Amino acid sequence: MSTDFAVAEYALVQEGEKEMSFLLKKISCDVLVCGSGAAGLRAGIEAFERGTNVLIIGQSRFGDAHTRLAAGGINAALGVVTQKDNWLVHAADTFEEGGKIGVPQMVEILARNANDAVIELANFGVKFARNERGQIKQRIYGAQTYPRTCYVGDYTGRAILQALVRKAKKLGVKQIDNAYITHLFKSGGKVLGCFAVDFKKGEFLVLQAKSVVLAMGGYSRVYKNSSSRPFENMGYGSYLALQNGLKLQDMEMVQFHPTGMTWPESAVGKLVTEAVRSEGGTLLNASGERLMKKYSPKMLELSARDVVARAIFTEIVEGRGTKNRGVFLDLTRVPKEKILERLPDTFKQFERYQKIDISREKMEVSPTSHYSMGGIAVNPSDCSAGLSGLFACGEATGGLHGANRLGGNSLAETLVFGKIAGVNASDFAKQNKMLEIGEIEINSARKEIESFFNRGFTAPQTLRTQLQEIMWECAGVIKDGEKLREGLEKLQELKENIPKMNVKEGLKKNSELVIALDTTSLVLVAQAVLESALLRKESRGAHYRTDFPKTLGSWQANIFAELKGGKLKLSKKMILRGSKEFERAVHAHYDRKFELWE
Ligand SMILES: Cc1cc2nc3c(=O)[nH]c(=O)nc-3n(C[C@H](O)[C@H](O)[C@H](O)COP(=O)(O)OP(=O)(O)OC[C@H]3O[C@@H](n4cnc5c(N)ncnc54)[C@H](O)[C@@H]3O)c2cc1C
After folding, report:
1. What pLDDT, on a 0 to 100 scale, did the predictor assign at position 457?
2. Residues 185, 195: contact at Cβ < 8 Å?
């Protein structure tokens, strides 16, 4: 087993080619982790601790991945508030509220391992809120039977990411940031590594590895209004998967969070955490009516996210919204001290963007695209993703959340499945030799990038914005067949302009190139979302179609998408059954369903 990195630098220009002066650096490692969010870091830490050398590469600055936005908390049935909670209830909540199309084995693995993941985080130094007995406090989140969300104020993701970064640095795990992975190398069904552009140094990277983990986050930025930052969640993991013959799962399932900011322009879509409703925030329409009484009289504001998002959306389109096309979220009856203790970031967020004090004035909110339940299909037990030596974890993958993700379950997923991916990527690397990446393949990956330079007249930013608007308009909170078909037609027109995208030559800090790469990915991902949504002729969880409003037993199924002969092919598969224990727990869920936690 090698203990250090092999690094070579060479220029790779064929005879007769126009020479571009970009250095190409070759780096070898045992385990290459693509993505430095919670999932990638957890995988990298695990693989490193198992004795393999690891390189984590991410587009964002190390410590500034999307995970840092996660606010409200992480789920684990620790049973602190009530001992009635346990992994079986957690599993049943996850499966039921996921519209019963989550992969049972994944749900079971998550629920069984979430407690250990949270305890591990506490050992890594995450300072969870604690009660007077020193136990980790748990708040209730939407559609939970019992309170099970562990938290650090309303900045849990940041606290977790910082702890993971500290741990990785302490161990000495190598990392490269501000580098964009553009290509997977493979041969004979085995992954060999990746090609990337290092935007900080302005050079190409050939990353050779025995095993690779894809932890590149979701694709929620396929929509215009999104709670993620404008430069992330571009679906590049899904794009790479399709390009390499892997399967994506349930791409139509995108979660619209009920509460995003509605103004100013620079803050539209920015998340207002569910913790606000969990701490007593109520939703009112423009006439001051508590709207959730009509849509979900028992669960009210703590109903599942899809239910609350549709309720708000309906109030707005039916003319009962505010002048900024939102509804009110009212926290004014909650004491200011409690707001400052439990929701400090939300307080600052509104102070900063709207100059309001949320303990005195109501917030205005409307749905925003938030989370991709769909993604790369993996084998739940080892996170393998369809190529020998390739693993995937975190939001980049599909299957766990089915049609609707419960708040707090995603952070749990990143840690539980990140660890599994790390174990298996490390084991694979120990058992397999490093294979060479051919010069022809390297050259072709390089040319793919250089082909963007000086070739057309369309600004990548224009196309990306158009695409995001098409998706918001044609495949948003409420869908129908006609709109989805219109979306596909518009996307086809837009696709024809992709080869005309013009990017100025250069690699160093070339943000135009980043947007061109994002747009290339988003076009294919958007097509998978639209086609899958069109195929699913029913409504379930986040996928609501006015032309097929019922949930159908015949659609308790997953939709898989793959590229065959350059065309997207979809297939439908009825869901698999879970273990006997799991099935019993899901059954018992019906008896508890309407028992409200006071
Ligand atoms: C505002 C907000 C609040 C949230 N709050 C919660 C919460 O309270 N609880 C909860 O459970 N979940 C929450 N979520 C969801 C949760 O934050 C994410 O699902 C989770 O952090 C995903 O982690 P990840 O590691 O899978 O991906 P990410 O954190 O998205 O990391 C992906 C990594 O991949 C890199 N990457 C992507 N493409 C490329 C490329 N081409 N080349 C190189 N690198 C690339 C990125 O730079 C990044 O480093 C929230 C989400 C949002 C938007």
Report:
1. 85
2. yes
**Cα 428 to Cα 30: distance, rounded to the nearest angstrom:** 9
Whether 66 is a known active-site residue: answer: no
Q: Residues 66, 277, 446, 536: which is the catalytic one?
A: 277
Cα of 455 from ligand 1 centre, angstroms: 33
Question: What are the tokens at 282?
Answer: 């109520």
CA nearest to 560, candidates 253, 250, 252 = 250
Q: Is the CB–ligand 1 distance for residue 56 below 6 Å?
A: no
Indicate the burial class of 598 (C-beta count within 10 angstroms; 0-12, 13-18, 19 or more).
exposed
Mean pLDDT of the 93-117 span: 96
Q: Record the tokens describing residue 186, joined without a space.
A: 């493979």
What confidence tens digit (pLDDT) does each residue in 323-349 have?
Answer: 999 999 999 999 999 999 999 999 999
What residue segments make up the domains of the chain, in order of their start?
A: 258-368, 442-555
Q: CA of 196: how far to CAs of 52, 191, 204, 499, in Å?
A: 22, 15, 6, 20
Residue nearest ligand 1's atom 35 by CA: 35
Looking from the CA of residue 240, the nearest atom of ligand 1 is 41
Out of 1.20.58.100, 3.60.20.30, 1.10.3720.10, 3.20.20.60, select the CATH number for domain 442-555: 1.20.58.100
Q: Does 545 have pLDDT greater than 60? A: yes
How much is the average pLDDT of 86-99?
Answer: 94
With the most atoms of ligand 1 within 8 angstroms of its CB, the residue from 34, 411, 413 to mutate is 411
What is the rounded CA–CA span in Å between residue 196 and residue 179? Answer: 6
Instruction: Give the pLDDT band (50/70/90) at residue 278.
Output: confident
Q: Is the CB of 252 under 6 A from ligand 1?
A: no
CATH code for the part of the protein at 258-368? 3.90.700.10
The model's pLDDT over 286-333, given as tens digits with 9 standing for 90+, comes to: 999 999 999 999 989 988 888 999 999 999 999 999 999 999 999 999
Q: Whose CA is nearest to atom 12 of ligand 1?
A: 410
State yes or no: pLDDT of 220 exceeds 70: yes
Q: Is 207 touching ligand 1 by the criterion CB < 6 Å?
A: no
Active site residue 277: yes
Q: Is the peptide bond before 264 cis (omega within 30 degrees of 0)?
A: yes
The proportion of the chain whose per-residue pLDDT surpasses 70, expressed as a percent, equals: 95
Whose C-alpha lies nearest to ligand 1, atom 33? Answer: 35
Structure tokens at 208: 């050779």
| pLDDT tens string 438-470 | 999 999 999 999 999 988 889 999 999 999 999
